[in-house]
Design goal:
Chain lengths: 573, 336
């Protein structure tokens, strides 16, 4: 029905060209609902304006085909035959979206008189009907925009948009500035109207849960480019572009308990670069991402992603790991047939009771234990020996007990230098500089005095930070954190975890966060694996695992962690 | 009830303003140096100047009640006013009311014509420039009108008089009608009046256009950026309707206020222009009255001007409320 081909909109400012929509193509079928998400300023609204033919002071190229008529080639006057009758828009709600000096009724009647050539009387009757249909008192026909509340205005905007029974409706941010109750009723209203009138829908929003409710397919826009496209439920559950994942992570209604972290960096101002729009903020950016724009292409059925790496990379793939300890004559199975994968830039929690095999698995991953069976791939290559842990940008582990994991007979600087020394990385001088950077990154002082202290003089919290510095000094792509905070007091633990998450957000490394503390896991994890008796019993996005667990083991673990009794007690208290 | 309260306070506001102005009206002329009987003439043309003796002067002062203490004069002024009596001109020997009614139509004719002309031309030019903003047509007009607005009205009048009346003889030099001419019909009389009024009206209009022009231009440019204009365009209604109902309807709000509020300053401009063209309106009358220290006449003229400015404000209030629904709601809220 609507097909957009290579649409580019370029605004001229005094000093430069701003490309608000950059080579966008997509199509919307009859009756379909398509969502567009993205941060403010990503070009969503410009795209809508371009479809309505409302952009005057910009260069527009490409094609906007509506039932095979190219709207961009139609002169302004003829465009009026399409506007409102065929394509209507619900503008983003603001006080000035209505003419302040005309009554609501007059403004709703206006297009009907033009397009449906209704007599004033008939138009008036229909207008009152529309107001009622959208849940407003028809008396509002004589009201002025400034007399309405935001929610009422949103309803009036919708009433105006459907006045000519459009075939196609664009809705721009229908839920911003509305309270949750009016938000829900507005969304319900739009759904009902769509059933009744049968229009196709483009819904623009940065509210992801609204999009999830309303649309069947969704697109992510970043700096005027579409970077991901797919079925809404799939995209929200398993985003494949780092930008989409960032948007989902930043939505509090998706992860109720997770700490809020926005996408690092800000929207780049220079949108004319030839590279990937998300390059400067991406956690897996490579050289070709800078200079070459990735094409939006299929990475799986019904999913398109614009990324040179084919979407979010999978850093670690683990297949069929088995490990059995032998105690005299007894065999104790520790890890049973575990599959696991970790993508770039995400925090995966591995949760389970103590003794469920979590640490054994972690040790196997970094080759401190050899598995009886199974294969491990890091960045697509099979892991052999210590190759992966012995390189810059590899895999590192931080252990539970800092007192045994750092030698108390070594000086602070030497502890951190050690991995570099083993790698024989550059010169001693450069190693010192890199180590000092890692030490301050881990939140430790960098004074000469401190660097020369022996590890045994440090406190527990400092020792744990020291082992973190040792892991971070190699700039790992994947950090395995095995119960890193369990030996610390709550305050040190909170500080350490927040700093670790902050570092992760800035540097974009991935983390396997192994813990039995579900409260902490719920605060940081994107995804979670639940382990019990050596097996992975359940896995999924953390908003599913923590809120709607399916496996009985997970349910019982959740119940004991977030116990109902405790909540009741608190209520009574 | 709320609405009523809002109105009530408004009325009190107006009454207070009127009282302050009446009082000023009374005291201001009396603070001028000299008194009416330093010079007085019995002749209406005011050419003949008679010198009064001390005795005569005292006699006249007593006759007109000017020897009484100020407060007593003040009270009798108010009691006269309340009866609608404006006093008796010392110089013209006629009731002030009669003189005013005789002169008022001329000034009204000048001022109203100038207001209408300047408003219409200003809006048309301003609208044109707003639509073609930043093109050469806009820049040229903008520059020209800014330049004209800097010239005071009487200077424009003098230049017009010099070129078109004195130089080319296209227009009469002074007056509002040709003296002693018997007109053959209504048309001829009207033609003669228009002929006389043309230059003063042009002078007044020219100096007023730029204000309206600038306001219209910026007002329309502002309105054009508003979201509701996008809404209107998206609705696919005709360009004409968008301009009238959405652009102009909103852009005219500040213009209406400006036109009504500028009526007061326009009377000021009229005084100078009328004197340049020796046009027999209130402006020229005021100058004469001030020269002659004709207290009752000065008071009468000021009163007239005051009332017209106040009623212009009042009408502006009413019209604005009709035009902008937001204002009446705000006024109602004030009454709380």
């Amino acid at each position: 029905m609507l097909e957009i081909k290579d649409l580019t909109v370029t605004y001229h400012t005094n000093t430069s060209l701003v490309c608000a929509v950059n080579n966008v193509s997509f199509s919307v079928k009859k009756g379909e609902s398509v969502g567009i998400m993205g941060e403010s300023g990503c070009g969503k609204t410009t795209l809508a304006m371009a479809v309505m033919g409302l952009i005057q002071d910009a260069d527009i190229s490409g094609k906007i085909l509506f039932n095979n008529d190219n709207l961009l080639a139609i002169p302004e006057k003829k465009l009026n035959q399409y506007r409102w009758k065929k394509i209507a828009i619900v503008f983003q709600n603001s006080l000035e979206v209505f003419n302040p000096v005309l009554t609501i009724g007059e403004q709703i009647i206006e297009p009907m008189r033009t397009h449906a050539a209704l007599s004033l009387k008939k138009a008036d009757i229909r207008m009152r009907y529309l107001l009622e249909l959208t849940g407003l008192d028809p008396e509002w026909a004589n009201g002025y925009p400034h007399q309405m509340s935001g929610g009422m205005r949103q309803r009036a905007l919708i009433a105006m948009a459907i006045s000519c029974d459009p075939k196609f409706l664009i809705i721009d941010e229908p839920t911003t500035s509305l309270d949750p109750e009016s938000r829900d009723s507005i969304l319900r209203l739009i759904k009902e109207l769509q059933k009744r009138i049968g229009f196709s829908l483009i819904m623009i929003s940065h509210n992801l849960s609204a999009l999830r409710e309303m649309t069947s397919t969704v697109m992510t826009m970043c700096c005027g480019q579409i970077v991901e496209q797919g079925i809404t439920a799939d995209v929200m559950r398993n985003p494949m572009h780092c930008y989409t994942r960032g948007l989902i992570d930043a939505s509090p209604d998706f992860f109720k308990y997770k700490d809020l972290w926005g996408i690092r960096g800000t929207i780049p101002q220079n949108t004319q670069s030839n590279g990937c729009a998300f390059y400067s903020r991406c956690c897996q950016a490579g050289e070709n991402c800078k200079n070459q724009r990735p094409i939006l292409q299929y990475v799986s059925v019904e999913r398109k992603v614009a990324c040179h790496k084919g979407g979010i990379e999978t850093l670690l793939e683990v297949y069929g790991i088995q490990k059995t300890y032998l105690l005299k004559d007894r065999k104790i199975p520790a890890v049973k047939d575990v599959d696991l994968n970790i993508k770039s830039g995400e925090i995966v929690a591995l949760i389970g009771k103590s003794g469920s095999g979590k640490s054994s698995l972690a040790h196997i991953l970094v080759n401190l234990l050899s598995p009886d069976k199974g294969e491990i791939f890091f960045m697509g290559k099979k892991v052999k020996g210590f190759k992966v842990t012995k390189k810059i940008g590899g895999m590192q582990i931080v252990f539970q007990d800092p007192f045994s994991s750092t030698s108390h007979r070594m000086r602070v600087l030497d502890v951190v230098n050690e991995p570099l020394d083993i790698m024989k990385w550059k010169t001693a001088e450069e190693r010192n500089i890199k180590s000092m950077a890692a030490i301050s990154m881990a939140g430790l002082p960098c004074s000469d005095d401190f660097l020369q202290r022996y590890a045994h003089t440090l406190s527990g919290g400092q020792r744990q930070r020291l082992s973190m510095a040792r892991a971070l000094v190699t700039g790992p792509r994947l950090l395995i954190a095995d119960e890193v905070t369990s030996m610390l007091d709550p305050s040190s633990s909170a500080n350490l975890l927040r700093e670790l998450k902050g570092l992760q957000n800035i540097h974009g490394f991935s983390m396997l966060y192994i813990t039995h503390d579900f409260h902490l896991a719920r605060k940081v994890a994107n995804r979670a694996y639940v382990m019990s008796e050596g097996r992975i019993v359940e896995s999924g996005p953390s908003f599913e695992i923590f809120e709607r667990p399916v496996h009985p083991v997970t349910i019982s673990l959740m119940n004991s962690s977030f116990s109902k009794k405790e909540q009741k007690k608190r209520k009574k208290g | 009830m709320i609405f009523f309260q809002g109105k009530k306070s408004r009325v009190i506001e107006y009454l207070f303003t009127i009282w302050v102005i009446f009082t000023l009206n009374f005291f201001l002329p009396r603070t001028m140096p000299g008194d009416p009987f330093l010079f007085i003439s019995a002749d209406e043309e005011g050419e003949e100047v008679a010198q009064f003796s001390e005795e005569q002067r005292n006699y006249y002062m007593a006759y007109y009640g000017l020897d009484r203490p100020l407060y007593s004069q003040y009270f009798s002024y108010f009691s006269d006013l309340s009866k609608g009596y404006l006093g008796y001109s010392l110089y013209y020997n006629q009731p002030v009311t009669i003189i005013l009614l005789h002169r008022l139509p001329w000034t009204l004719c000048l001022v109203m014509t100038a207001v209408i002309l300047s408003t219409v031309i200003g809006i048309v030019l301003g609208g044109f420039c707003a639509v073609y903003a930043d093109r050469w047509e806009d820049r040229l007009l903008y520059f020209m009108l800014i330049a004209i607005s800097e010239i005071p009205a009487f200077l424009v009048g003098l230049v017009l008089l010099f070129f078109f009346a004195a130089g080319m003889g296209l227009f009469p030099l002074s007056g509002a009608m040709t003296h002693f001419s018997g007109y053959d019909g209504f048309m001829e009389k009207t033609g003669d009046i228009l002929h006389h009024a043309a230059l003063p009206v042009i002078a007044l209009t020219l100096t007023r256009i730029s204000g309206i022009f600038l306001l219209t231009r910026s007002s329309i440019i502002t309105v054009l950026t508003k979201t509701y204009i996008k809404t209107a365009r998206a609705k696919g209604i005709s360009g004409q309707r968008i301009f009238i109902k959405h652009i102009f309807r909103n852009a005219m709000l500040p213009i209406v206020t400006r036109v009504f509020l500028s009526l007061g300053s326009l009377v000021g401009g009229a005084i100078l222009v009328e004197n340049v063209f020796a046009y027999p309106g209130l402006g020229k009358l005021m100058r004469d009255a001030v020269m002659m220290h004709d207290y009752p006449l000065i008071q009468g003229i000021f009163l007239m001007v005051t009332i017209s400015v106040l009623s212009a404000n009042f009408i502006a209030d009413l019209v604005y409320k009709k035009l902008d629904p937001r204002i009446s709601d705000a006024a109602a809220a004030d009454g709380h």
